[in-house]
Structure formats: structure tokens, C-alpha cells
Amino acid sequence: MAPSESFMKIFDHDEQFRGLMRRLFEVAITHSFDAIMISENKPGYPIVFVNQSFTDMTGYAHEELIGQSPTILQGPKTDRLVLDRLRRDLSAGKIFHGQAVNYRKDGSEFIMEWKIAPVRNETGDISHFLALQRSI
User: Fold this and answer.
1) How much is the pLDDT for 2?
2) In 10 A of CB 42, how many CB atoms?
3) DSSP 3-state assignment of 124?
4) Of 25, 123, 114, whose CA–CA distance to 70 is shortest?
5) What span, in angstroms and rounded, lies between the C-alpha atoms of 23 and 30?
6) What angle do CA 100, 107, 44 make, to 5 degrees?
């Protein structure tokens, strides 16, 4: 039995709406004043996306960050207790909010505030982490 014409109109509208929402979120993330990084929930948490604000804040080019671990930004003054809390919260599926000293590509320090949220896939497993960051 073929789907009815009214069903297909609803489906087409739903697909158009999802496509529009995807494009709107893409523009919002790309052009946000906050630095945004997305990493995979795999060993080392490889970076899969950074926006322009992130590259501006850190001094790294987009190509230098993709595939790297976020630890590329850490250094001697990065508080290990904060990182322990970060790991604990994220492994428990919680949103993390904190501050830490990070390092730019040129080695200069900056204090940043960040909020990291787990992103779940269709089966409810954490697939990625979305980090919003700003220099304070």
C-alpha cells in the first residue's frame, strides 16, 4: 500500500522543517561569540568541530585542532582537580561548568570559563560532547 498524499505532505513538511532547523543551528554555532568545540566520546576525546571564535581565542587554526585531544590546550597551571571533576561529571552524564587556565598556541595563558554537555545518540548513549567556552 502506497502512502497517502496527505501523509507525504506531512513527511515533506517535517523533512523541510528539520533541514531548516539544522541550517539555523549551523549558522548559530558557526557565528557564535562564544567559542564552541565538539569532541567525540572516544579515547582522547578527538575534536571534530571548532568555530571561528574558538580558533580566535586559542590561536590554533581549524585544521590544527581537528582530530586532536582537547588536552592540547592544557599546561602547567591547568588545575588537575578541575579536570578530575570534569571527567567525573561527564562520565556520569552530567553537564560540567567550571573555570581553568588554558594555553594558546603561542604558549600564553588565558583563564576560561566553560560548560560542557554530553550529546546522546538515538539509543541514549553519549556520542559527543559540546563545549561552550569564553575567556574571562
Assistant:
1) 55
2) 10
3) coil
4) 114
5) 10
6) 60
pTM above 0.85, yes or no: no
126-to-2, 67, 91, 93, 133 alpha-carbon distances in Å:
37, 18, 9, 8, 20
pLDDT in tens, 20-35: 888 888 888 888 899 9
Instruction: Enter the C-alpha cell of residue 115.
Output: 560548560
Report yes or no: 114 and 130 within 8 Å, Cβ to Cβ.
Answer: no
Burial class (CB in 10 A: 0-12, 13-18, 19+), 129: buried
Integer angstrom CA distances of residue 99 from 14, 67, 86, 110, 135: 40, 24, 10, 10, 9
DSSP lists the bridge partners of residue 120 as 126
Task: Name the phi and psi angles at 62, rounded to 5.
Answer: -50, -50
Helix (H) or strand (E) segment spanning residue 38: strand 35-40
